[in-house]
Design brief:
- The strands form two sheets. A three-stranded antiparallel beta sheet has the order 1-2-3.
- The chain is an alpha+beta fold.
- The protein contains three helices and six strands.
- Helix 1 runs antiparallel to helix 2.
């Protein structure tokens, strides 16, 4: 079964079902009971194959839709992030503010992961996802001048 879940596979299955249907129609009542059962089994199999192919195709399309939603979210988020020091920050009127995001996670995976203060150390921030450590002086919490977020 080449191209499982493709439009071509669905069309081939439906074409087979249509051919079987034509053969049944053209034979009229002259088909024996066994021949009719065989033709109906072929027709049922072709329709089942088409349903399966459509289900696989729908799953593939749903996966692509989810991927597009993620990319759209990343793109919209990318427009409001700006690098400052070792972290990325949201911006308000072009100026960074708030908690810093891990620059490694953002640049490599486009994941916006906030940095956390490392336990027992005021001078180090750590990403909970990739475990990279940053100097707190290079990734400060930035207050917004006018918090309109």
């Amino acid at each position: 079964m080449a191209n499982i879940g493709s439009v071509g596979a669905v069309l081939r299955s439906l074409q087979t079902a249509q051919d079987v249907g034509k053969a049944i129609r053209e034979a009229g009542y002259v088909l024996s009971r066994d021949d009719m059962r065989r033709q109906l089994a072929d027709l049922s199999g072709s329709i089942s194959e088409a349903k399966l192919q459509l289900t696989l195709l729908k799953e593939a399309v749903d996966g692509k839709d989810e991927e597009l939603r993620k990319l759209e979210h990343t793109l919209s988020f990318k427009q409001i992030l700006r690098r400052r020091g070792d972290g990325y920050y949201k911006t308000l009127e072009g100026r960074p503010y708030g908690q810093p995001y891990c620059s490694y996670c953002w640049e490599s995976e486009h994941k916006a992961i906030h940095l956390h203060n490392k336990i027992f150390s005021k001078d180090v921030r750590q990403c909970p996802h990739c475990k990279n450590e940053y100097q707190a002086g290079r990734t400060p919490y930035l207050e917004a001048d006018r918090l309109a977020v």
